[in-house]
Design a protein that fits this description.
282 residues; Alpha-Beta Plaits; 3 domains; three-stranded antiparallel beta sheet
């Protein structure tokens, strides 16, 4: 059943438009959010006039912006991330330089150290410790450069044994109670071997520090040494073109007064390493 269309006149059009606008548009601002309420009490649009007004009102509603709290842009937090003190205040004004990525070699944990060089005869562990401690403290200075920030004492040494009978040179096996001291001595071992004799201390010996390898590491190191030995070329003077020396986690290669070091975690075979250094030629 359809309703008859009412006569078209200006008065009805004005009343319909005013009444429909009051019914459709009802905005309420609450808590900073626009709430749109459209109240329609009559779903049947009586005539063509009101139908046009209804469609026009829908178009206007789409153009009205509605604000939402989720669209708000939060202001950046300018609070300081950390409190700077000391020289960090001045260094924060320096330009930041991006350092190139350098792969660090993951050295296994050092538990035992082999010390060789100009060592006296091993009479007893106590006397040998008294000989060794002043050299380590004076040359390495753990008070300044070690995390423990103190000198080595006899209490820090777990054991000191003479293993010269199992080595080609006089060697002592040192074990410390604190692994930080062991790693500190190993990382700074060059300070012990590069020490220059002076007139004030003519008896100061040069010491060489190497890690005491586990039986498994020693087995694989020997395999690598044998591979290097097979690549040697014997000249007319019956001398090889290079020499190899095991030094803990590296193998030192001497070629024409130049030194090369083959690390324990190398991705190259001995032959590839020698070719890359120009020691061998295709």
């Amino acid at each position: 059943m359809t309703l008859p269309n009412p006569p078209r006149n200006k008065s009805i059009k004005g009343k319909c438009s005013t009444h429909l606008q009051h019914q459709i548009l009802n905005f309420q601002i609450k808590n900073g959010q626009a709430l749109k309420k459209i109240q329609t009490t009559n779903k049947i649009i009586p005539n063509q006039c009101t139908r046009k007004i209804f469609l026009l009102s829908q178009i206007h509603l789409r153009k009205i912006p509605f604000f939402n709290n989720s669209n708000r842009v939060s202001k950046p937090n300018n609070a300081p991330t950390g409190i700077k003190s000391g020289w960090a205040i001045a260094s924060s004004s320096l330009p930041v330089h991006i350092k190139p990525f350098v792969k660090k070699t993951n050295i296994p944990q050092v538990l035992h150290l082999e010390i060789s060089g100009d060592l006296p005869n091993f009479e007893s562990s106590n006397k040998s410790i008294q000989f060794l401690l002043p050299i380590l403290n004076s040359r390495l200075c753990p008070v300044l450069f070690n995390k423990c920030q103190r000198d080595l004492t006899q209490e820090d040494i777990y054991s000191l044994v003479d293993i010269s009978a199992h080595r080609k040179v006089k060697t002592w096996l040192l074990r410390l109670k604190n692994t930080q001291f062991s790693e500190f001595i190993f990382e700074n071992r060059r300070k012990l071997s590069s020490f220059q004799h002076s007139s004030d201390s003519p008896s100061s010996p040069k010491l060489y520090v190497n890690p005491n390898l586990s039986p498994e590491d020693k087995f694989h190191q020997i395999k690598i040494l044998q591979a290097f030995q097979k690549l040697k070329v014997i000249g007319e003077d019956k001398k090889s073109n290079f020499s190899v020396f095991p030094q803990g986690f590296v193998i030192k290669i001497v070629f024409e007064s130049k030194k090369f070091f083959y690390p324990f975690d190398s991705k190259k075979s001995p032959k590839e390493f020698l070719l890359s250094k120009g020691i061998l030629k295709e």
